[in-house]
Design brief:
With 206 residues, this protein is mostly beta strands. It has a five-stranded antiparallel β-sheet with strand order 5-2-1-8-9, with no helix packed on it. The chain has a three-stranded antiparallel β-sheet with strand order 10-11-12, with no helix packed on it. A hairpin with a 2-residue loop joins β15 and β16. It starts with 16 loop residues before the first helix and ends in a 6-residue tail after the last strand.
Length: 206
Protein backbone atom coordinates (compact mmCIF):
# COMPACT_ATOMS: atom_id res chain seq x y z
CA UNK A 1 0.00 0.00 0.00
CA UNK A 2 1.46 3.37 -0.96
CA UNK A 3 1.50 6.56 1.13
CA UNK A 4 1.09 9.91 -0.63
CA UNK A 5 2.59 12.40 1.83
CA UNK A 6 3.62 15.18 -0.57
CA UNK A 7 7.22 14.98 0.65
CA UNK A 8 8.66 12.87 -2.18
CA UNK A 9 9.26 9.98 0.19
CA UNK A 10 9.37 6.55 -1.39
CA UNK A 11 6.24 4.42 -1.24
CA UNK A 12 6.24 2.15 1.77
CA UNK A 13 4.24 -0.85 2.86
CA UNK A 14 1.96 0.30 5.67
CA UNK A 15 1.78 -3.29 6.86
CA UNK A 16 5.42 -2.94 7.86
CA UNK A 17 5.98 -1.74 11.44
CA UNK A 18 9.36 -0.21 10.57
CA UNK A 19 7.77 1.69 7.68
CA UNK A 20 5.10 3.09 9.97
CA UNK A 21 7.75 4.19 12.43
CA UNK A 22 9.66 5.90 9.63
CA UNK A 23 6.55 7.81 8.57
CA UNK A 24 5.91 8.82 12.18
CA UNK A 25 9.50 10.00 12.54
CA UNK A 26 9.31 12.08 9.37
CA UNK A 27 6.10 13.78 10.49
CA UNK A 28 7.56 14.58 13.90
CA UNK A 29 10.68 16.03 12.29
CA UNK A 30 8.57 18.26 10.04
CA UNK A 31 7.29 20.10 13.10
CA UNK A 32 10.63 20.27 14.92
CA UNK A 33 12.33 23.68 14.74
CA UNK A 34 16.05 23.63 15.59
CA UNK A 35 18.13 26.04 13.52
CA UNK A 36 17.69 27.82 10.19
CA UNK A 37 19.30 30.66 8.17
CA UNK A 38 17.31 33.88 8.22
CA UNK A 39 17.33 37.38 6.74
CA UNK A 40 16.77 40.56 8.73
CA UNK A 41 13.61 42.43 7.74
CA UNK A 42 13.97 45.17 10.37
CA UNK A 43 16.05 45.85 13.49
CA UNK A 44 15.09 47.51 16.78
CA UNK A 45 18.35 48.82 18.23
CA UNK A 46 16.84 49.97 21.53
CA UNK A 47 15.56 46.47 22.37
CA UNK A 48 18.21 44.61 20.33
CA UNK A 49 15.55 42.55 18.56
CA UNK A 50 14.89 41.75 14.91
CA UNK A 51 12.06 40.82 12.60
CA UNK A 52 13.26 37.87 10.52
CA UNK A 53 12.30 35.99 7.39
CA UNK A 54 13.52 32.38 7.56
CA UNK A 55 15.54 31.79 4.41
CA UNK A 56 14.58 28.14 3.83
CA UNK A 57 11.04 27.24 2.84
CA UNK A 58 9.00 24.65 4.66
CA UNK A 59 6.77 21.87 3.33
CA UNK A 60 3.02 21.85 3.75
CA UNK A 61 1.33 18.55 2.88
CA UNK A 62 -0.77 18.92 -0.28
CA UNK A 63 0.63 22.46 -0.82
CA UNK A 64 4.36 21.90 -1.35
CA UNK A 65 7.07 24.40 -0.44
CA UNK A 66 5.98 27.72 1.12
CA UNK A 67 7.74 30.55 2.96
CA UNK A 68 7.88 30.21 6.71
CA UNK A 69 6.10 32.95 8.69
CA UNK A 70 7.94 36.07 9.79
CA UNK A 71 9.59 35.80 13.20
CA UNK A 72 8.89 38.83 15.39
CA UNK A 73 10.83 40.39 18.29
CA UNK A 74 13.64 37.86 18.12
CA UNK A 75 16.48 38.72 20.54
CA UNK A 76 19.91 39.17 18.93
CA UNK A 77 22.95 37.44 20.36
CA UNK A 78 25.29 40.03 21.88
CA UNK A 79 28.56 38.69 23.24
CA UNK A 80 29.18 40.13 26.67
CA UNK A 81 29.97 39.68 30.33
CA UNK A 82 31.29 41.55 33.39
CA UNK A 83 29.62 44.74 32.20
CA UNK A 84 31.23 44.64 28.73
CA UNK A 85 29.73 43.70 25.38
CA UNK A 86 30.31 43.67 21.63
CA UNK A 87 27.50 45.50 19.85
CA UNK A 88 26.82 44.79 16.17
CA UNK A 89 24.46 47.14 14.30
CA UNK A 90 22.11 45.40 11.89
CA UNK A 91 20.05 46.47 8.90
CA UNK A 92 17.49 44.97 6.56
CA UNK A 93 19.07 42.33 4.34
CA UNK A 94 21.68 41.18 6.85
CA UNK A 95 21.85 37.43 7.38
CA UNK A 96 22.50 34.95 10.16
CA UNK A 97 21.02 31.89 11.78
CA UNK A 98 18.16 31.63 14.24
CA UNK A 99 18.20 28.85 16.82
CA UNK A 100 15.03 27.68 18.56
CA UNK A 101 15.27 26.90 22.26
CA UNK A 102 14.18 23.63 23.82
CA UNK A 103 11.62 25.40 26.01
CA UNK A 104 9.58 28.60 26.30
CA UNK A 105 12.00 31.48 27.04
CA UNK A 106 9.39 34.25 27.44
CA UNK A 107 9.90 34.74 31.20
CA UNK A 108 13.66 34.40 30.95
CA UNK A 109 13.77 37.25 28.40
CA UNK A 110 11.83 39.42 30.83
CA UNK A 111 13.57 38.51 34.10
CA UNK A 112 17.08 37.43 32.95
CA UNK A 113 17.26 34.76 35.66
CA UNK A 114 16.42 31.13 36.41
CA UNK A 115 12.69 30.70 35.88
CA UNK A 116 10.00 28.22 34.93
CA UNK A 117 8.86 27.97 31.30
CA UNK A 118 5.76 30.04 30.69
CA UNK A 119 4.20 27.25 28.58
CA UNK A 120 4.98 23.64 27.71
CA UNK A 121 5.87 24.43 24.09
CA UNK A 122 9.15 23.04 22.74
CA UNK A 123 11.31 24.19 19.81
CA UNK A 124 8.67 26.78 18.99
CA UNK A 125 9.12 29.55 16.41
CA UNK A 126 8.39 32.03 19.21
CA UNK A 127 11.51 31.02 21.13
CA UNK A 128 14.24 31.90 18.66
CA UNK A 129 17.58 33.67 19.21
CA UNK A 130 19.29 35.31 16.23
CA UNK A 131 23.03 34.98 15.65
CA UNK A 132 24.21 37.50 13.00
CA UNK A 133 26.77 36.14 10.61
CA UNK A 134 28.17 36.81 7.16
CA UNK A 135 27.95 33.97 4.69
CA UNK A 136 30.65 33.87 2.03
CA UNK A 137 34.38 34.34 1.55
CA UNK A 138 36.21 35.08 4.83
CA UNK A 139 39.48 36.13 3.18
CA UNK A 140 42.82 34.45 2.74
CA UNK A 141 44.64 35.35 5.97
CA UNK A 142 44.28 33.91 9.48
CA UNK A 143 44.05 37.23 11.30
CA UNK A 144 41.18 38.35 13.51
CA UNK A 145 39.62 41.51 12.09
CA UNK A 146 36.74 43.91 12.56
CA UNK A 147 36.15 45.81 9.35
CA UNK A 148 33.65 47.79 7.35
CA UNK A 149 32.08 46.24 4.27
CA UNK A 150 34.04 48.57 1.96
CA UNK A 151 37.35 47.73 3.66
CA UNK A 152 38.17 51.40 4.37
CA UNK A 153 38.13 50.89 8.14
CA UNK A 154 39.76 47.87 9.77
CA UNK A 155 41.01 46.74 13.17
CA UNK A 156 43.13 43.64 12.73
CA UNK A 157 44.96 41.42 15.21
CA UNK A 158 47.94 39.62 13.68
CA UNK A 159 50.67 37.37 15.05
CA UNK A 160 53.00 40.38 15.17
CA UNK A 161 50.67 42.98 16.67
CA UNK A 162 47.62 45.11 15.93
CA UNK A 163 47.02 46.96 12.66
CA UNK A 164 44.49 49.78 12.29
CA UNK A 165 43.26 51.29 9.04
CA UNK A 166 41.13 54.44 9.09
CA UNK A 167 40.63 57.43 11.37
CA UNK A 168 40.75 57.04 15.15
CA UNK A 169 38.72 59.22 17.53
CA UNK A 170 39.58 59.00 21.23
CA UNK A 171 37.64 60.40 24.20
CA UNK A 172 40.05 60.37 27.12
CA UNK A 173 43.80 59.86 27.24
CA UNK A 174 46.11 57.51 25.38
CA UNK A 175 48.94 55.91 27.39
CA UNK A 176 51.89 54.51 25.45
CA UNK A 177 54.82 53.01 27.34
CA UNK A 178 53.56 54.71 30.51
CA UNK A 179 53.57 58.15 28.84
CA UNK A 180 50.36 60.18 28.60
CA UNK A 181 49.49 61.64 25.21
CA UNK A 182 47.60 64.49 26.91
CA UNK A 183 49.89 65.27 29.82
CA UNK A 184 53.43 64.45 28.66
CA UNK A 185 56.20 67.07 28.51
CA UNK A 186 59.24 67.14 26.24
CA UNK A 187 62.64 67.52 27.88
CA UNK A 188 64.68 70.73 27.65
CA UNK A 189 65.63 71.75 24.14
CA UNK A 190 64.63 74.05 21.31
CA UNK A 191 61.22 73.49 19.73
CA UNK A 192 59.46 75.17 16.88
CA UNK A 193 55.78 75.95 16.70
CA UNK A 194 53.49 78.42 14.95
CA UNK A 195 54.68 81.19 17.30
CA UNK A 196 58.36 80.57 16.57
CA UNK A 197 61.16 78.77 18.42
CA UNK A 198 60.95 77.97 22.14
CA UNK A 199 63.89 76.94 24.31
CA UNK A 200 63.31 74.94 27.50
CA UNK A 201 60.86 72.27 28.61
CA UNK A 202 57.75 72.05 26.43
CA UNK A 203 54.27 72.61 27.75
CA UNK A 204 51.43 70.11 27.62
CA UNK A 205 50.16 69.02 24.18
CA UNK A 206 47.32 71.14 22.76
Amino acid sequence: MGFDNGLNLPDVNLDSYSALMQILKENIMIGLNVCIPATVVSYDRNNNTVKLQPAIQTVIIDEGFVDMPLLLNVPVLELGGAGLSIKIPLQAGDTGIVIFCDKDITLFKQEKKNTQPNTLRKHDLSDGIFIPMKFGNAGANNNISIESADGNTKFEVTSSGIAVKGNITVEGDVIAGGISLKEHLHSAGTYSNSAGSVTGTSGNPQ
